[in-house]
Amino acid sequence: MTTETSSYRIQGATGEWEVVIGLEVHAQITASKAKLFSGAATAFGAEPNAQVSLIDAAMPGMLPVPNRECIRQAVRTGLALNARINRWSRFDRKNYFYADLPQGYQISQLYHPLVGEGEIVIEPAEGEVKTVGIERIHVEQDAGKLMHDQHPTRSYVDLNRAGVALMEIVSRPDMRSPAEAGAYLRKLRAILRYVGSCDGNMEEGSMRADVNVSVRKPGDAFGTRTETKNVNSVRFVMQAIEYEASRQVDVLESGGRVVQETRLFDPDKGETRSMRSKEDAHDYRYFPDPDLLPLELDEAFVEDCRASLPELPDAKRQRYESELGISAYQAQVLTAEAETARWFEALLAAGEGKVAAKAASNWLISDLFGALNRLGLGIDDSPVSPAQGAALLGLVADGTLSGTLAKQVFEIMLETREDPLAIVEARGLKQTSDTGAIEQAVDTVLAANADKVEQYKAGKTALFGFFVGQTMKAMGGKANPQVVNEILSKRLG
Predict the structure, then answer these.
(1) Are 70 and 139 in contact (CB under 8 A)?
(2) pLDDT-derived band of residue 2, with 50, 70 and 90 as boundaries?
(3) Using an 8 Å Cβ cutoff, are 361 and 400 in contact?
(4) Is 390 helix (H, G, I), strand (E, B) or coil?
(5) In the chain, pLDDT over 90 holds for what percent of residues?
(6) Which CATH fold would you assign to the domain 435-492?
(7) Per the CB 3.0–4.6 Å rule, which of 134, 140, 325, 441 could disulfide with 118?
């Protein structure tokens, strides 16, 4: 796979600057309904401190036991990213004090992570392809949450998230523009959702990114980086990179130096601000957790994880192009989200070979997506089911409906959720191929527009479309367009 170099540069007073970006993505393992070391629930939106076990609260004598399903999902994610699965890994204690961390340390993996090097292929722009390296994936427990807006003088602690299983997916500093970082996050989110190891819901905090940014003159060594913590949308990640890179350029060009520090992103102002200094990247006094044995994976476990993987987006996209004859653009749109691909395949399956893949993809991307955007709905909330969509397309394919009538029927389906055939029969919307009726309508249109007929015969052939439109209008849109064209061609000779 070739790697294209981004042309993104920041123009400073002293010349061009290149941006160097690495992302640390925290993805909550949602396939398991329990936490990493306890059986407590993990559902979003529960009452504060309603999902906290004795282990999560760090009660004395409570010993952690790894959740096998969490480990399995992390391994499956690693395999989906073409990463090395380490057969031997271990948990470490990351020691720091914070009020929402009951143990006074976080159980994580530093020196021996579960998953090693991998890669993601991204397309930041049309015609551009780039491979971004994955350094590692390690499994760790989340901390709780402090709430500062519940009381005028006190902060409250909610431990519902304490102990929730996270995968920290650490990229190499291979990205060179906000667009590349956005493409990377979108692709990673899609893969996680295909695999089923994380729901990718950034608004609910189940996927968030720490954004590492530095700048340098092109070709120079890496500069000093800052880390902007817990950015929770693709758009905000791109904004944070753009702001932070420009800020660092201003600092360097004014004679200052960039300080290695942790920063926060303010989405209202589109700015980053300093949170705390971080002179040493590993200042947490890590040591092996004495309560947990190392994880040792046998080959059968890893192969079982591999066999459980679904068809991933890149493979599915290639199959759509080669086997279904769909354009590269449409294949990309249809495979960008797991839900869209599943809906499309359900649409084809419901069509039972009667619905052409190209017609189905055209309808889904233009008609259905357009309607859902207008209604503010996702595809899983579509008022029209895949089976109903297939039935509608089948009525077009067999000549029962024209394209115009199909659009009318579709709008009614969106409102009523009725099946298309029932709508057609109840409202008399069936297309007619009755040549006698169409001939009569054509003759009426030509007689009423004798001047235009003369113009057409004199060489103004563009008027043919006018005659078609007038005939369709005269027949309430129910005439078969092919028959209309054939009769008009004969009449106009």
Answers:
(1) yes
(2) very low
(3) no
(4) helix
(5) 73
(6) Arc Repressor Mutant, subunit A (1.10.10)
(7) 134
